[in-house]
Write a structure and sequence with these properties.
Helices cover 45% and strands 11% of the residues. It is an alpha+beta fold. It has a five-stranded mixed beta sheet. It is globular and about 55 Å long.
Length: 257
């Protein structure tokens, strides 16, 4: 994805939110919403739908208000149907509310955001990967194999790694990701995506990739995205691992949000 053109990236993210939600809704049609979601322990499909739609509606409210500081409340009008048979349509309506909010704000409008990019476009990109990963959760819960566009997956890995250093307020394990210069490299075998993370005494961050990382994981962009979000294990056959496996295990343990 061409991040040199924010307007193009915004349009791609906006359209992908709609497409991913539509796929999610289709998965839900006729499904048993009491089914457990193994990748979200303790949740049913109904819980997953409520969460995803609520996040979309909350982010949409933030965009409409163009919030300039951290909100004190996450309360938003949900209009949840009483009967779970209406949840699929409700999730589709959540995406429609989001689409309306996207039209109301410029991508580069300054806004508070918990991550690296303090602009409206942060929330659209964040909503996309929240929706995409939970669509995959729904499919996995129903025994389906998620198909994720490689380009979107590559963008999703980048979004995850760029914002992860800022996630400590709600993902306290992130504060454990410190070191003395150790490096971890994540390489996509299908798209050329390549990221190197360096652990420092004061935290961690991305730097230019180069040979000689202390630990490297290679896999398809889709599989690496699912690894980042804890939906695939590091020891899955999908990955080729080199170097310090203890370092990688520590990263996987503490990088969840």
């Amino acid at each position: 994805m061409d991040h040199a053109d924010p307007a193009s990236a915004f349009a791609t993210h906006r359209d992908a939110v709609a497409a991913e939600t539509a796929r999610f809704v289709q998965v839900l049609r006729g499904a048993d919403l009491t089914a457990p979601v193994p990748t979200c322990p303790g949740w049913t499909l109904a819980d997953l739908v409520r969460h995803t739609g609520s996040v979309q509606r909350w982010f949409a409210a933030l965009l409409r208000k163009r919030v300039q500081e951290r909100p004190l409340s996450r309360e938003v009008e949900l209009r949840l149907p009483e009967d779970e048979d209406g949840y699929a349509d409700w999730l589709a309506d959540s995406a429609a509310e989001a689409a309306s909010a996207f039209e109301s704000v410029a991508p580069d409008a300054p806004m508070w955001a918990w991550g690296a990019d303090q602009h409206a476009r942060f929330w659209v990109r964040r909503m996309l990967f929240e929706t995409l990963v939970h669509r995959a959760d729904a499919e996995l819960a129903l025994g389906l194999a998620p198909v994720i566009d490689p380009g979107l997956a590559t963008d999703g890995i980048d979004e995850f790694l760029v914002n992860l250093p800022f996630a400590a307020p709600f993902a306290p394990g992130v504060a454990e990701l410190r070191g003395t210069g150790e490096t971890l490299r994540f390489r996509c075998t299908d798209t050329g995506g390549d990221w190197t993370v360096r652990l420092r005494p004061d935290g961690f961050g991305l730097e230019a990739s180069a040979a000689g990382a202390d630990a490297t994981v290679r896999g398809s962009a889709a599989d690496l995205l699912l690894l980042a979000y804890g939906r695939l294990r590091l020891d899955a056959p999908a990955f080729e691992v080199e170097g310090d496996e203890d370092l990688l295990a520590r990263w996987v343990t503490h990088s969840k949000f």
